[in-house]
Structures are given as structure tokens and as C-alpha cells.
Amino acid sequence: MTDLATKLSVAAGAVFESMGLDAELGQVRRSDRPDLADFQCNGAMVAGKRAKKNPREVAAEVAPKIEALDFVESVDVAGPGFLNIKVSAQALQERAAQVLTDPQSGGGKVETPRHVMMDFGGWNVAKPMHIGHLRSTIIGDSLQRLFRFLGDDVVSDVHLGDWGLQMGLLIVGVSEEQPDLPYFDADFDGEYPSESPVSMDDLERLYPLYAGMMKEESVVETVEDGKSVFKKVPNPAYREEIRSLAQTATADLQAGRRGYRALWKHFCDVTQIGLERECGELGVKFDLWKGESDANVLLPEITEDLKSRNIAVLSEGAWVIHIERESDKKDMPPFMLVNSQGAVGYHATDLGTILDRKRTNKPDLTLYVVDARQALHFEQVFRAAQLAGYENEDALEHIGFGTMNGKDGKPFKTREGGVLKLYDFISQAKDKARERLEETGMGADYPAEERADIADKVALAAIKFADLSNVRTKNYVFDLDQFVAFEGKTGPYLLYAAVRVKSLMRRAKEEGIQAGEIKIELKEERALALQLDAFETALKLAYENRTPHGVCDHVYTLAQAFSSFWTNAPILKAGVPDEVKASRLALAQATLKQLEAGLYLIGIETPERM
Ligand code: ARG
């Protein structure tokens, strides 16, 4: 099944080819002037330029041949040689009817499905779950839904940050607060008991507390002459020995000290339980809950291998891989395999993870949905993987994204300037959604439980749509008031649009109206059918460029096209002939189906009513 845009491009391409020209020239796109045409083609312009012929002449030659196609109604030559193409109502009717029965809702499928690994989430054990990881989770989830929908076999991995200095730091913290725990005995050889000595709250308190002790100075903000001034002052909490204690504990943990491993396992489990709950709330599922630590078992083998092949070399006591290339325009620091203290870090665990995945999942492609500020890190890791021969660097892609800022233009914080916890962030959005629903009076007479469920869905739609509708790589300002609004290009607007169609369906059912054959007559019907046709191309582009905002744009334009259709093409009104009602109802059904499919791809669930 193909969309009309593709069908037309192929057929127009054949026309160009029959004239000894390039088939590529037949490429059409949706017209910017829907009043004049459905599609436009600039091929004659290009061909004219290439052959040093008047483009209008080329256009005049091509136009009748395209017009002769059975699914084309008319072709006009405009301006210096543009082709303005209108497809037949029959073709649009058939296409809309297809969307209604197609399991893909007209979204298409990839030709050759691949095994795709998606590394996103990237939450850290014990560190507060902050907004940067939320973006990764939302964008990554949308991409995993999109890739799966189009037929790829996707495995998603949260890649928990569970292996750095923060682990040693926590061990130190717990050892000071609960020194009597058996885990600290050097010869601890007990099993891993089921009861955790620490809760998530403990971890979230301990981590910043002990991280604070590692800093000699802290920054304080004072207000002088109405301006805020930042000053460095000696940190009263500073404890000189903490860093080295944490380093030793980390090294011992990595070397396999049993008590530390058992305690560390508790940290990971407690964090994972909390995260799984929050991801559940967000409607995000990961196939794998692996972490940086899973690469650990492979690291001795990797270091041996790379040393023996002289890929890793000794430099100032550290084992590094030189990855710079002649074509480099910027500085390319070496890849750090083992540092001068003998410890492995973020580079090494990522390289180990690549080898692990190569062996267990055999991906054709791996996407890393991680903050754009880590671009250098991934460049280094990918080059090292290529040099080592563990993975082809073309099969590894960093999908970077910008920061989510507060209204002050700075990274989103709590009102007090602290790191905003994911849980609190979502609660704030839910409160705001509840407020908004109350103001509008929506669902005022529904049971309390249903109202709460609607508010939750509105909040998540607001957060996800706001995030995904931006060009991924850009920073954006998170404005809760604006995003929870039911007007404008927002998630709640789209939910409302979908719910309106659902309520229309219910009323049509009550009145015994049944969907029937689609007949395109009004210009609003034509516009809606063309929009339904555009889903396939929208998904294709979003897929190729890894840009969920393309899906957002599509669902938004679809909702708008439906809105004009709804105003001008009544279904329930008395006096409308039965077959017209039946046709319009079928168009509405196709719209709802595609709208829900599109919203699903951006992780948004619609309530039955609002
Ligand atoms: N935990 C890391 C951080 O907070 C992100 C992990 C991203 N994924 C990866 N394979 N490096 O920065």
C-alpha cells in the first residue's frame, strides 16, 4: 500500500524518464497553495535548467502526460514552470478508505526491517532523577514506538549509570551512618539479603550530602545593589578524606569485594524499583534494565585485547586509544580505557557495552538518545569501537537533544534552585491539569476516579507533546501554563480533538448512523483526505531523521483539518442525506484511527471522554 504522494512521484518520474530525463525529477510534494493544487512538482524547472531549455516548455510537454494518469484530475503549469497537480476525487476516496482498513492507518512500513538497539533513559543510581533524563526517556520512547511501528525489531536498554565514583561515595556514606552492617567486614561472604538497609529516600539524601563533602569550596549567591553576585566560599561541610575513601571503595567494589557488591546491589535494586514505577507512570517500557556495570565482566578481556594489538597505548600512566584523524577540525582528546589509577570509567563501560550488545543482541543499528552535550564522548566511543573492530561506527548514532529550560532561560530547576525531581515535576503538571479541567468545567459530572485519570492523561500529553514537538536538537523553554492549555499547538488540544471525534462516534451510533462509502465533495473533505494521505511521508521522514516532531506536526495538522471538516461538513445535522452522513462518518473514523495511531507514536494516550 502506498500513499498518493509516492504513487504520483513514481508515475511522474516515469513520465520524465520516457522523455529521456531523470526519474528523480518526478518527485512531488504537498502544495503550499491548497486552493490551487494538491501537489506540486518542480522537476520541469530543474530539467529546463540542466538542458538549457525554457522550463515552461518542458513543463508544457510533461503536463498532459501526467494529466493522462488515471488518478490525476488536472495539471496546470504555473509561473516559470511549476506543475500544479490535482488528484482525482476517486483516488482520494480510495486512499481514505484504505486508511480506515489498514492496520498501519496509512503509516506504511519499512522495506527491510532491522535489529535496532536503543539506549535511552540513562538514569543514574541514587542521583536525583532530573529533567535531562526525562527528555531522553520521552524522546527515546517515541523513537522506539516509531521504529517498532514501522517494522523494525527494537530492543531498548535503560543503561543505568551504576558504576562510577558515586557508588563508592554511597558505600562510604552508608558505612558512616550504619557502621554495624555486615557488608563492611572485609571477609563478608554472606548472601545478598533481601532486605535493603537503605531506601530510595536515603540514597537521594546521601548522595548530595556526601558529594557536597568532596568540594573544598561552595558557591553562594548574595544580592548586592539589587543584583545577584556569586561568590566562592570555603565549604563548611568539606571533608578532605572523603574523595580518597570513595575512590578506594569504588576500586574495591569494581574488584569484586563481596560486601560492597551486596550493598551496591541494594542501591541498584532500590533505584530500579523507583524508576520502574515512574516509567510506568510515564507509560515508558524498557526491554532491558542493564547498566554500565554489565560491561565490567568484559573489560579485562577488552583491555588485554587492545593492549596486545597496540590499539591501546600507555600514556602518562594511563591506557588510551588515539582516535584523532587528519580530517579533524577540532581537538580530539584520546579515548581513556584505563586511567592512571587503574580504574575504568565512562568511556570504557560504553565500549564494553558495545561489545556486549554485539555478542548478545547483534544490532544493525544502535541509537543513543543522550543530551547533546555528550557529543564528544560518543564521537570518541564510536571511533574507538571502529578501531577496535568491535562495531562499525556507521551503525552507532548519537541522537542528541537540547536542554529544557525554565522561563528564565536556564536549565529547569525548582523554585528554590534545586534539582527538580521527576516525581515532583509530574505532580506539578497533574495539579495544573486538574486546575485547568476544573476551570473549563470539563468532565465536571464524571466520577472522581475518571476525572483524575483524565487529568493524568492531560498532564502527560502536555509534557510529552511540548517536548517532542520541538526540534530535538534545540533548547526549549518549559512553560507549564502554556503547555497545559487546551488551545494552541499543545498535547491537551490534541486530546480534546480526539475526544471530540470519539463523542461524535457515540452520538452517530445512538442515532443509528452507519459509516459507508467515502465520497469526496467539499474542499474540507478533500483537505482531510490529503492529510490522511500525508501520514506515510511524515512517518518516513521522522524515522529517517529520528525526529519525533514530524509526527507531532502531522497529528496537529490532521486535528486542524478535522476541525474545519467538522465545522463545514456536518454529520449529525437533520437534512443531510444519509449517504453523505455515511461518507463523512467514515472519514471521521479514518481520522480518529490515524490520530490515535499518531498520538501513540508520541506516547500519548487518549481518554474516552473529557
Ligand atoms: N548516565 C549517563 C549520564 O547521566 C547517561 C548514559 C547515556 N548512555 C550511554 N550509553 N552512555 O550522563
UniProtKB/TrEMBL annotation:
Belongs to the class-I aminoacyl-tRNA synthetase family. GO terms for molecular function: arginine-tRNA ligase activity. It comes from Hirschia litorea. It is found in: Cytoplasm. Residues 2-87 form the Arginyl tRNA synthetase N-terminal domain. HAMAP family: Arg_tRNA_synth. The gene is argS. It catalyses: tRNA(Arg) + L-arginine + ATP = L-arginyl-tRNA(Arg) + AMP + diphosphate. Residues 494-610 form the DALR anticodon binding domain. Monomer. This is Arginine--tRNA ligase. It comes from the Bacteria.
